[in-house]
Amino acid sequence: MLLVPESNATHFVSLRSNNSNNRADTVTVASAATRRSQRTKRGLLELAGAIKCSTGRSALAYMIYGCYCGLGGQGWPKDRADWCCHRHDCCYGDAERLGCYTKLSQYRWTCEDKTAECDDLKDQCEKLLCKCDRDAAKCLRKAPFIRKYALWPDFLCGHDHPTCNIY
Fold it and tell me: Is 89 annotated as a binding-site member?
């Protein structure tokens, strides 16, 4: 199950549900993603919070964007935003090879001046995951959001893909 914030950043919607009727489950939680200097520690949602902090957009905007934003990834990235997501996938891959749990690990961060800050972390995995998320969010902030790539179907992505050693 993947939880991402809705636009008001106080509710999270399950995009993948294990229940038999395939309905989205809603869970209400407190969010620090858009409040300056408030701390948060919640696992997989750090990336969603960093995206909201840096871009002002809900992470939902990127859930099925291009060929790499959202779960999985295949083919050739469609635009600059999609390249940001490809690079983030590679960064998480590096972290996993070092033994970090990219989807379960939690770390504390703050949103300051449209940037996810986490300089005071001691744990190496937390530092690496924060860097992955912060860099992706900064990249997405600089990349244009092209509406035609939102809800982009996987079958249009092809099979050729860039390797991670380009970064």
Answer: yes
